[in-house]
Amino acid sequence: MTTLWAGQALTGAGWAENVRVTLDASGRIAAVEPGMPRAADHVVDILLPAPANAHSHAFQRAMAGLTERRGPNPRDTFWTWRELMFRFLDRLTPDHVEAIAALVQMEMLEAGYATNVEFHYLHHRPGGRPYDDPAEMAGRIAAAAARTGIGLTLLPVHYQFGGCDRRPLGPGQVRFGTDRDGFARLHAASAAVLKALPDDCRIGVAPHSLRAVAPEAIADLVALAPDGPVHMHLAEQVAEVEEVRAALGARPVAWVLDHVGPDRRFTFIHCTQMEPAETEALARSGAVAGLCPMTESSLGDGIFDGVRWLDAGGRIAVGSDSNIRIALAEELRTLEYSQRLRDRSRAA
């Protein structure tokens, strides 16, 4: 048994003083006791629960900065950034991916995150040909977690189409591509690689977005992980919202609310393009808003309506997404400051 003592600690019951935390041999918390004398194996002034990094594409850490310059385009956007990302990832081997993931996970631990929630869509060889083991790349993420000791929630991503018109995937994107049967095999193989990790590592499922997945497939995808989390990009860019509305007759959030029935298992990533009624309705569903404020700033996504969301009882989680910088406190500060700038307020 190992003991920690903190002058102040944030517990499930709120702030407490003179708290002793006892860890069992596996590293799990066995007891949390306030009002205890200052005697333990480790003494700290303040102790906080370490959150999960709710949304990460580990490989993008190695391209941080490559897009941060003026180019030939008169107006750089998310879509021009994406073109460079596709070209970059075609250079990556499984060994590269494992090394980058280990670096990213180490930086997450240093920043205060306890778990890497990896939205994992880099599945195949350059050109789209599958590896002999469909979970080759997922296994590299798991191997990195075994090396760094971070918690892992692995979210294999289903990514079938290049847009709502179901056009084929373009160059770069083909490394992500799966049809429904192929994804089911990949998901099962990805679950198997987690067996070598501690039993609190989890498998979930991630329909990439309404642009990249057949809407009628979402229920079957969710069923692949009946007890696991479901994550999905939703309403990140204006052009995305317009494309979905033209194809499905509704904005992304409205369509999901009407056809998917989200609940507390669901985390919707970004949600920077929501109307007030959508914000309030999605918050009431119990779904989590997965926010990545530094990446959303970098990509020019927009500003999440955090004040309205929290007023409606919504829950938030924070992730580092493109991993342009991994800094938990800065993610939270960027979220808060974006609300102040939009509303010209303070302490939003």
SSE arrangement:
Elements: E1 2-11, E2 14-23, E3 29-33, E4 42-47, E5 52-56, H1 78-89, H2 94-111, E6 115-120, H3 136-148, E7 151-158, H4 180-193, E8 202-203, E9 206-207, H5 218-223, E10 230-234, H6 238-248, H7 252-259, E11 266-270, H8 276-284, E12 288-291, H9 293-298, H10 306-311, E13 315-318, H11 328-343
Helix pairs in contact: 2-3
Main traits of this protein?
five-stranded parallel β-sheet; alpha/beta; 13 strands; single chain; 34% helix; TIM Barrel; Urease, subunit C, domain 1
Q: Describe it for me?
A:
The chain is α/β, with parallel strands linked by helices. The chain folds into 2 domains: 2-47, Urease, subunit C, domain 1; 52-343, Alpha-Beta Barrel (TIM Barrel), CATH 3.20.20.140. It is 34% helix and 21% strand. It is built from 11 helices and 13 strands. The strands form 3 sheets. Strands 5, 6, 7, 8 and 9 form a 5-stranded parallel β-sheet that branches. A 4-stranded mixed β-sheet has the order 3-2-1-4, with no helix packed on it.
